Inverse folding.
């Protein structure tokens, strides 16, 4: 992952939908098994805002922006199934979002506004990366190895992450959708609504 440059008093953040357990760890372990060194640094997620460098004094406004926009969106069901790739444009293999695409698109559009407004190089395509910038045989193994993956869960919150000096992305804060509380009914439904691969 190419990260934007920052100076010592700046913070590198991202916003995503975190893949819940047990599926998040399963995909992270699979990514490690394919030889991707980023597996230990990046929790399984669907990006809403890629790595972005901000000044610390902007964090309160960003926090308020994320809290308010999350409250305007209702929870929705998201399904991950099968694999895809951005090759030959980019050496990436991913698990596909097959249901909940429009919910992801609306969130991404709103996240990337206000204090987080920015242009993007590519059209938004929600997905979960499972192999990145690896040799072709490893990318092929990821594409084939997770072709049968299938999981559904309720997205009840979005999450901000901060990038540490050790290269690890760590969760910073949850923002409940619909103004609810994470881990409420949506969280329980997520656990019950998962389809085994």
């Amino acid at each position: 992952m190419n990260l934007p440059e920052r100076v010592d008093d700046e913070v590198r953040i991202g916003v995503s939908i975190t893949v819940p357990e047990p599926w998040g760890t399963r995909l992270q372990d699979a990514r490690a098994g394919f030889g991707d060194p980023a597996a230990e640094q990046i929790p399984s997620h669907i990006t809403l805002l890629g790595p972005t460098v901000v000044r610390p004094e902007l964090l309160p406004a960003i926090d308020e922006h994320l809290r308010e926009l999350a409250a305007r969106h209702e929870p929705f069901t998201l399904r991950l199934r099968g694999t895809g790739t951005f090759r030959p444009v980019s050496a990436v293999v991913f698990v596909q979002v097959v249901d909940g695409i429009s919910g992801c698109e609306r969130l991404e559009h709103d996240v990337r506004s206000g204090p987080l407004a920015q242009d993007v190089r590519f059209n938004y395509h929600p997905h979960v990366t499972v192999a990145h910038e690896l040799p072709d045989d490893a990318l092929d193994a990821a594409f084939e190895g997770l072709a049968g993956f299938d999981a559904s869960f309720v997205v009840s919150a979005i999450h901000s992450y901060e990038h540490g000096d050790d290269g690890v992305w760590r969760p910073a804060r949850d923002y409940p959708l619909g103004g609810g509380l994470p881990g409420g009914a949506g969280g329980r439904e997520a656990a019950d609504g998962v389809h085994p691969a």
